[in-house]
Amino acid sequence: MELRQLAYAVAVADTGSFTRAAQRCFVVQSALSHQIARLEEELGTRLFERNSRRVQVTAAGEVFLGPAREALAAAERARSEVVAHGGEVRGTLHIGTITPLAALDLPDLLATYQERHPAVRVTLRTRIVSDLLQQVRDHTCDLAFVDADPQDPPRGLVARVLAHEDMVAIVPHGHRLAGAAEATLAGLAEEGMVDMPPGSGIRQHNDEAFAAAGVTRTVAFEADAMVLLEQLVARGLGPALVSAAAADRMPTVRSVPLTGVPPRVIQALWNASGASPAARAFVELLRERTPDAPPAAQG
Prior knowledge:
It is a single chain. By secondary structure, this protein is α/β, with parallel strands linked by helices. It is built from 11 helices and 12 strands. The strands form 4 sheets. A 5-stranded mixed sheet has the order 4-3-5-12-6, with helices on both faces. A 3-stranded antiparallel sheet has the order 10-7-11. Helix 5 (106-116) links the parallel strand 3 and strand 4 (120-126). The chain starts with a helix and ends in a 10-residue tail after the last helix. InterPro entries: LysR_HTH_N (IPR000847), LysR_subst-bd (IPR005119), WH-like_DNA-bd_sf (IPR036388), WH_DNA-bd_sf (IPR036390). Residues 1-58 form the HTH lysR-type domain. Keywords: DNA-binding, Transcription, Transcription regulation. GO terms for molecular function: DNA binding; DNA-binding transcription factor activity.
């Protein structure tokens, strides 16, 4: 089993196509297909089901891909460690983030990082929290900015709390609560609501807030991006709970203060072991530029 075979298999899984995988790996498709076939023969099972429309990962392929990604990440870290031993940080830094991220100026942080380590290539991805946590565990993402409960840190990960963001309700202009001094969860739950999908940090936060208050609500619409969530609320399809920082950037809706809702916690998370030199350098800069967040005030 060769590293290039692992890389080819991961590329096929990521792109869903042998043609696109070959393009990503800079090889001809026949060579990539041949190596995948050799790998499947060695493993004694098919990793992919092929048809005229798409390539689908088999159950065996799903089992194989996790360790394959870890092996590729370990090989990249090994190369980076050797280069870093000579005094230069090189390699690739993979950062994942929720959106929006108001707790810090990420572009400014990355600009400083690039000035210090110009040989590092940085990739950014936006995902829901559940996906980001898994990718950090798998070493396919070096560090992630998430909204997650600091009282229950994911096993094997290091967390740095960056901010505690107060939550507000957002409603359309002309809504019964627009201009109100405050809103309650019970009042918001009188109508169907808009929220992010399950697996996102803010959805988990909001679900737990309603459950703690003993209030049952209906999520009538789910949006996987804040800009779409704002549009749904502005159209009158339901109120939503968002951070005050996010609401400040939403001109088409009105924000209303909330009572009895704890703040949302924004954290940086990275793997406790096996971090690459590029990742360690970014964590060092993050610690330098972001003071420890004070404990959250209880609402």
